[in-house]
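Entry for the shared binder. Reason: the reviewer on the internal report wants the predicted structure included alongside the sequence.
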Amino acid sequence: MRELKFTVSEAENGVTMQQFLKGHGVSQRTIIKLKHTGGITRDGKIIRTIDTVNSGDVISVLMEDAGGLIPNPDLKSDIAYEDDDVIVFNKPPYMAVHPSIKHSDDTLGNLFAAMYPDTPFRAINRLDRNTSGLCVCAKNRYAAAALTKNVSKVYYAIVDGTDLTEGQIEVPIGRVQDSIIYRNVTPDGQYALTLYNAVKHSNKRTLLRVILKTGRTHQIRVHFAHIGHPLCGDGMYGGDLTDIERQALHCGEVSFTSPVSGKQITLTAELPEDMAALLENRGTT
């Protein structure tokens, strides 16, 4: 990780953060990546790319060099599949995928760096830190380009209540004003479509199989909270924290075509222990 610091000049007073960074040679692609990882700060606090900067502000940018993540061989994650071009981890909960200011050396990227010290980390499907499950990573630029938008995913979520069977949620999602992370359903948000069907009703909860037709931030969490069934453990969106301390969400299936061999790869990962415990038979409905 490399931290760059810039001081805003008088001539740059009032421009947006995005304009400021472009003026200092930071590419649009890098800006987008920094925005998603919280890698842009002003005086130690995260700043959005649409915010304006003031003369004298000290802007810090946390850069990832290609293949330059901090290797951490002490980290553990099961490997669901591997070949010369692709590796698929079954990521445990509480492990971020990409390094950030708060997690510089304890992420899946840091584990990858320990395994492949000279290879840039390219995760194809992003999972929230507290979401468990299958994460597809490319070992080279060619594989990354071939896999982008070509990985099919199925998620499993546990919600309170037993009245859901199957259906779809089709409402737009947008960022809550003045928040970098929090999203909600809003008429001026981006189109979002979630499909679901119930797999099991148990212990007054429902295990759902979920497919995303769009890829909005926190889409599953926001959509089910919107219909009155927030994910168990999802304190951010009103979920019950009684028996689990993270959102009960797991990427349980992925499928893709191997970039070189052309072979169709389909992988599954069982529910982790904390989610399975939510469905223990203390009263099946």
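Summary line for the report: Helices lie at 17-23, 28-37, 108-115, 141-147, 219-226, 273-278.
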